[in-house]
Design a protein that fits this description.
Bound molecules: flavin-adenine dinucleotide
Number of strands: 17
Number of helices: 9
Helix content: 25-40%
Strand content: 15-25%
Distance between the termini: 28 Å
Radius of gyration: 21 Å
Structural class: alpha+beta
């Protein structure tokens, strides 16, 4: 285990914002993880587990304790057991692998189940945390189990899918058991020879008029293309990419709140957007609420701004501080709540605030 001190965290995040980690270690094996945990405990240091840094806002002061970068690598493929996994192919993937590299690997292996999640930045270990989802798929549909180091029990454990408590952008890892588990490996069960999932409107539109069914590789390319148009693909040098992706979750509303929102929209001569992805859980479009509250695409507020391609992404326009991002976040939350009666919750994890 190589321990470093005062390591700048900004370059390790997609936002490129934030102060240093007092101590920093890259854990490449389960043994490294255990050593790092022992070090943090022996000094009574707070521990933060870093993946690909794509869903974080690190404070300007940084992290006062130990940052453990989950860097276990490796993708192992094995046939599933017919009784348990319906002939699916299993992939045991190290938490430190790039998520998109794994999706590419699965597509080349002609295994279906994650193709719509192409182009999402970050690590494999980060995917169960907020039950990553896009374009009609969520990882909770294909995660078979998650191998973790349980800080409470002090041992390595295997959690089955049901034990992870997956829901919209949530799991036990970011709710009830936040901070308890370090994810070491994730096992995905994918369908060999399966067809791509083409349910999302943007994807259907992309393939409109085509006579043959797109394959997994074409679906992956289509998703990456659509994501690039929305600034949701990390392209080096592209100014809209210095973000944490969508800054707010789509709010899940009660029947009453939904009606109230529709009425407020009517009073302004507007119609609340409704499409299948939102209807499944009575969600409202956070992007629509942000834009209809005056925060339009491309709008700048000093060093921070709204992406020119997506109203939901707060971007670092260069040299932004975490304090500036927080100020814009609060401005948006207050305005949306005043106009629409809905409180938006941020999606990224706030570190060191
Ligand atoms: C341009 C862009 C587009 C995006 N699009 C999407 C999208 O379409 N859908 C979507 O769901 N998300 C999206 N995101 C958000 C983000 O990419 C995902 O949430 C991703 O899974 C985060 O993984 P990460 O490894 O970067 O985690 P990090 O950002 O490093 O960490 C996020 C949280 O996970 C925890 N964590 C990370 N690794 C581990 C581990 N091994 N063990 C325990 N805890 C861990 C951290 O402690 C932290 O709490 C996008 C982000 C960007 C920048």
């Amino acid at each position: 285990m190589v321990l470093q001190e005062n390591v700048p965290l900004a370059p390790l995040t997609t936002f490129k914002i934030g102060g240093p980690a007092r101590f920093y270690v890259e854990a490449r094996t389960t043994g490294d993880v255990q050593d790092a945990v022992s070090f943090a405990r022996s000094r009574d240091l707070p521990l933060f587990v870093l993946g690909g840094g794509s869903n974080l806002l690190v404070s300007d002061a940084g992290w006062p304790g130990l940052v453990l970068k989950a860097a276990i690598s490796g993708i192992e493929q094995r046939p599933g057991n017919d009784d348990n996994e319906d002939g699916k192919t299993l992939f045991d993937v190290g938490a430190g692998e790039s998520w998109d590299r794994f999706v590419c690997h699965a597509v080349i292996a002609r295994c279906a189940g994650v193709e719509c999640l192409s182009g999402i930045p970050g690590s494999v270990g980060g995917t169960p945390v907020q039950n990553v989802g896009a374009y009609g798929q969520e990882v909770s549909e294909t995660i078979e189990s998650v191998e973790v180091f349980d800080l409470k029990a002090g041992q390595v454990r295997e959690l089955c899918r049901e034990a992870c408590g997956f829901n919209y952008r949530s799991s036990i890892f970011n709710t009830t058991e936040r901070g308890r588990f370090i994810i070491l490996r994730v096992t995905y069960a994918l369908e060999p020879g399966g067809a791509p999932r083409l349910e999302y409107a943007d994807l259907k539109r992309h393939f409109e008029g085509r006579e043959t069914m797109p394959n997994l590789a074409e679906t992956r390319e289509a998703v990456r293309h659509i994501r690039a148009l929305k600034g949701m693909l990390i392209v080096p040098g592209e100014p809209d990419c210095q973000s944490a992706g969508s800054f707010f979750k789509n709010p899940v509303l009660s029947e009453q709140q939904h009606l109230e929102l529709i009425n407020r929209a009517k009073a302004r001569g507007l119609t609340v957007p409704s499409y299948p992805a939102l209807e499944t859980r009575k969600k409202a479009s956070a992007a629509w609420l942000v834009e209809r509250s005056g925060f339009v695409k491309g709008h700048g507020f000093g060093h921070v701004g709204i992406s020119s391609k997506h109203a939901l992404a707060i971007v670092n326009r260069g040299g932004a501080s975490a304090a500036e991002v927080m100020a814009l976040k609060e401005q948006i939350q207050t305005r949306v709540e005043e106009i629409w009666g809905v409180r938006l919750e941020p999606e990224p994890v706030m570190v060191g605030f």
